[in-house]
Amino acid sequence: xxxxxxxxxxxxxxxxxxxxxxxxxxxxxxxxxxxxxxxxxxxxxxxxxxxxxxxxxxxxxxxxxxxxxxxxxxxxxxxxxxxxxxxxxxxxxxxxxxxxxxxxxxxxxxxxxxxxxxxxxxxxxxxxxxxxxxxxxxxxxxxxxxxxxxxxxxxxxxxxxxxxxxxxxxxxxxxxxxxxxxxxxxxxxxxxxxxxxxxxxxxxxxxxxxxxxxxxxxxxxxxxxxxxxxxxxxxxxxxxxxxxxxxxxxxxxxxxxxxxxxxxxxxxxxxxxxxxxxxxxxxxxxxxxxxxxxxxxxxxxxxxxxxxxxxxxxxxxxxxxxxxxxxxxxxxxxxxxxxxxxxx
Length: 344
Description:
The chain has 344 residues and is of the alpha/beta class. It folds into three domains: 2-145, NADH-ubiquinone oxidoreductase 51kDa subunit (Rossmann fold, 3-Layer(aba) Sandwich); 153-228, Ubiquitin-like (UB roll) (Roll), CATH 3.10.20.600; 233-329, Up-down Bundle (de novo design (two linked rop proteins)), CATH 1.20.1440. The protein has twelve helices and nine strands. Strand 7 (190-195) and strand 8 form a beta hairpin. Helix 3 packs across helix 6 (135-145). The longest helix has 17 residues, at 62-78. It starts with a helix and ends in a 22-residue tail after the last helix.
């Protein structure tokens, strides 16, 4: 309705930035099923009356860009005269895939989240109604339009201490154990599971194995990461939050000051420092951050830390009393990319 009142042609963007370090599903689709994504993009454009479409690609990913570019050239030959989407590269920043950051980058600006309202579907790129959809959502729409029974399925990246790390397709509601089994099962004794990616939630085996993905546990970025007993969830959380603090757009107090303070507190749990960090101070900082950011970035980091404190209270207390455990000094299991890239 807002689109009709505005009288402006809409814009549709296929978001394949995949800034989540543990995830690989969007790259897989863009590399191996680009026509499926482009079919979904076309359907979305027709549904909202869009005249301009874009595919937002991972930074400097030549293989993905080559695959999508070739698919667009094939479609241009087969569908002569039909407008084809424009490719835009996402910078290598965690927040560059956030909806308003995507819109900013498509317009040629830095890929930093911008304040809303108005919401993008009211006023987005160039002031026009804008729809930003993940490439998996578009691919699913295309499959359903072809008559395939794809509803209720999801791609999940299963990584960490599993036999065959990679991407599996499951029915929404499948258990964590079923997803892990599809990736070859656990290697060693599982000590923790991160569900949803770096804005996700920690889970504790064995009670988590029966939880449904997308029902009991949010899908998030579509990630299930298994930690064995040789890796410490406290240390992994500290590394992740330090990374997220460095990746912020620094546009609000929670990102500029709050996340670095939380990262510093977590680092104190995993280092032999005196005095030991104060848990009450860490919890207070988390409460001060939540809901006050310019975008969802600080909230996502806070929820990750809160889940760690909830799921592993004994481990946290042990780190407070005794200092870092033996696993804290080991190499991280979960990937921590460099934060040296720019915003364009």
